[in-house]
Write a structure and sequence with these properties.
165 residues
């Protein structure tokens, strides 16, 4: 029986990257594109990356409490149940901007899931950069998220180091 080897610095960076990828439900190719976009922006790349991932429509739907998981939120968006600024948005990776409104499509509001969600939404809290009208179930983006708002459990620096080799 061999002993476990110590994980290398590179291995730790990979683990960190995979952790953030899995929690946001993003595939490798798409994650690379988001990382490249974060690199092009001014500021700290690791923080930009987290902010871009947080601004995805599927994540905002999850943060508003319309879904119990990001995967479920992605499905709600893909199936066309969500409206972004009054228009059907069926692309989960679409980025929201300040002032955008997110609400349910009329037909989506007739589903059994919607009725169950309305009952459970009262108990859910919404992050500070979003607001939710619990009566009409209309969410609004008050401001863009900051790294402090996200409360990152990820090491953005390790991910930047992973890609900068």
């Amino acid at each position: 029986m061999g002993r476990r080897r110590r994980v290398s610095e590179r291995g730790l960076q990979l683990i960190e990257k995979q952790k953030i990828r899995y929690s946001y439900g993003v595939l490798e190719r798409q994650f690379r594109l988001v990382f490249a976009q974060a690199e092009r922006q001014a500021g700290i790349t690791g923080e930009n990356l987290l902010v871009l991932l947080e601004r995805r429509l599927d994540n905002v739907v999850y943060r508003l409490g319309f879904a119990d998981s990001r995967a479920q939120a992605r499905q709600l968006v893909q199936h066309g149940h969500i409206l972004l600024n009054g228009r059907k948005a069926d692309i989960p990776s679409c980025l929201v901007k300040e002032g955008d409104t997110i609400n349910w499509k009329e037909s989506g509001a007739k589903t059994e899931y919607y009725k169950q969600m309305v009952e459970s939404i009262e108990a859910k809290s919404v992050v500070s950069w979003l607001s939710l009208d619990k009566e009409n179930l209309v969410g609004q983006v008050l401001s863009l998220p900051t790294p402090d708002d996200i409360g990152a459990k990820f090491d953005g620096k390790a991910i930047v180091e992973y890609y900068s080799r």
